[in-house]
Amino acid sequence: MLESLKITRRQSEIRQSLAELAGKASPTEDETRSMEALDKEYRTNETRYRASLIAEDEERREAGAELETRSGKEWAEMASRFEVRQVALALDEGRNLDGATAEMVQELRSKGGFQGVPVPLEALETRAGETIASGVPNPRETMPIIERIFASSSATRMGARMINIGVGEVEYPVATGGAQPGWAGTETGDVPGPQAYTTVDRPLTPDHTLGVGMKITRKALKQSGAGLEQAVRRDMAAAILQESDRAIFRGSGASGEPLGVITGAATYGITSTAIDAAASYAAFRAAAVRFMTANAANSLDAINLLLRPEVFDSMDDDLLTATTVSEWDRMVAKIGSVVLTTNGLAAPAGDPLESTALLSTATNGVSPIFVGMWGAVDMIRDPYTDAKSGQLRLTGLVTMDVTVARGVQLEILTGIR
Question: Model-level pTM?
């Protein structure tokens, strides 16, 4: 018990005793001495109480800081011990979950409705000790749940903010009008009048669900052991990454898909500019200048550029006269980040072949794209379709949505040949 709390309780007892003694019209000598002693103790305790509060203040700060971070750290530590293999065996054989896997499943069930076994998105990341690409971050580092899984996605590299949502809908109010500067025209003149501060809400709603299906044979379940853990996790993570990356940029907004950034350019208020020329440094430089002129970016370093690999092939093969420097070399030396994708942008089409590009930037720390994902992966078993062969058919369900903060933070370039 804290010392200050002990003193508080003692002070209460002293006040009660003094009240009883003070109520006597003719106290005895012993009672008088007792009142003097209690009064002296009460005044001493007041000083001790203030000293205790000062001493305990630092302890409270440290304890508060620990409580603020303990939940996230404990969750990350448990996620590093989550076994997808246990989920597969539980769905196939009815085996009981145990350890960190059982604890995380129970926690997820208490916070949301799942038809099958919930699997946290963190559990799908590549674990330490596996053969991995050099760009994958350490999975034991404490980071937001979704961002680690999609750390190498085109959307994340283009500045999209990944948000994990428990339940319900989330809205992000974005300012569209506010303070306007102005000068007084004369010595006694007034400055311009105040302008209304207006915002527009950018909602993320759980209306779009992505399904990932996979089958595991009976032989794989019996033979693979721990190897099944890596195989299931990598395969499911890759499938979710590929399709979500495509939907963020090219989602149709129909047939269950969210409305992607490029497909929904008109809805989101994104400027689209036709290049209708061969891919060159000059064309992208002009686009970057337009972007900065619109006050979306302050420098070339703040601009992200999304391109198809075919554009890289064309520009890298176009050398400046009498040099070994290509148009591609000139561009990557100036633009902040150039991201190549075969998934986020449609393949070149037409005659001549034409492609699309996307410019993005973060303004005042606000990401150009918000991607919301709800809860965890809902893992559901189909016990009937492959019952005769003993195969385990699984479906992982992920609910997600996409929205754009400010259209001015994005620009689409079309007709890149």
Answer: 0.65
